[in-house]
Write the structure tokens for this entry.
Amino acid sequence: MVIKAVRGFNDILPPQTELWQLVEEKARMVLENFGFQEIKLPILERADLFARSIGGTTDIVEKEMYTFTDRRGELVTLRPEATASIVRAYIEHGMYARDEQAKLYCIGPMFRYERPQKGRYRQFHQINAEILGVADPLADAEVLQLLTLLFDELKLTNVEFQINSLGCSACRPIYRRRLKDYFQAHLGEVCADCRRRYELNPLRIMDCKQESRELLESAPACIDHICPACRDHFESLKGYLQALGVSYRVTPGLVRGLDYYTRTTFELVSSRLGAQNALAAGGRYDQLVKELGGPDLPGLGFAIGMERLVSLISPPAKEGSRPVFVIPLGESAKQEALKLAVSLCQEGIKCQIGYGGKSLKSLMRRAQKLHSLWALIIGEEEISKKSVSVKNMDRGDQQLVPLGEIFQYLRKER
Ligand code: HAM
């Protein structure tokens, strides 16, 4: 029986991987220009970490985590997101003691047991960036600007920035009460999960896909109940975004599916993505470091869904990337051909060699298949003349070039 990949877990094959490399390369460049440093984290964490950070009544924790006991009976989870892990590492290594402010990023796979569909997978990849120890709304504006620059680099257009404020520990309880008052009259209409959420975490009802649009749209909005300090923070953010020319839409219904958010939340949506239209999302989590046992320090960040991003970009023009193909004519030429191929690679010239002692004709076909511009043929005659026959695959002409001049020749002719 042929063994296939697990449902929702995808192979990413070449040449698609080139787009992934491009996205990663541009993201690293932009993030590092903004002062972010890479952090590498395990993909397996103690299950508690996510229950305590993302929240026990969220869909992610209730329904979507890959949690199991390991051989020693410890409950562990394949990370569904990276923010909790970054905050754990920041606390565990006392990073805040050296410098409260940390700008960290990581790139890698996340795991959620969701129903797979276009743009939604059980293993997916995120580019995740966090700023720890900064309360200033300048940082909120900075990360949104950073995302704009990255999308510009990738020539992505038509991305809408939706922003909202979810208040803080001072004003959220007031909003929570207002929300409970509102939903009390509608408890007969909401799903069984939401009746439970009503008691435990009424804000989660606002993120439920089962409830009618009208019910949620008529509910009180958090943004109308935030305290003056949160309002100032939000107004400052909007002012900075305007000054930077980053356009945005205030979206009162944006509550996000994770419980740790305070104040700013945002989503970047693309109309080209279909039902799963969020390309990136994030916000502030000013209580999370403290809730996970660290000092009382704020934080914010975002994650980009790489599968969704890659699906929107086009392959870059492949200039100068056609490999040279070295063809050994017969057994005796293989050593020289191998040496030549290695020295071309060392010089930074892409190069492949013809294997298997096949005929000149079949190796020429291979050179064509690889889209080579040059075929370098080495047989006994070439070896005796310390030269190589160089065939231009587009024009069809062929020349004998001394081995010592080959790099120069290829560079000049390219
Ligand atoms: P999130 O909204 O759960 O936030 O995920 C961020 C992005 O990851 C989404 O906008 C989407 O592009 C992508 N994504 C999520 N789930 C899937 C899936 N099943 N398949 C494909 N792509 C998916 C977070 O994860 C937060 N940790 C973001 C954050 C960072 N907030 C503060 N810092």
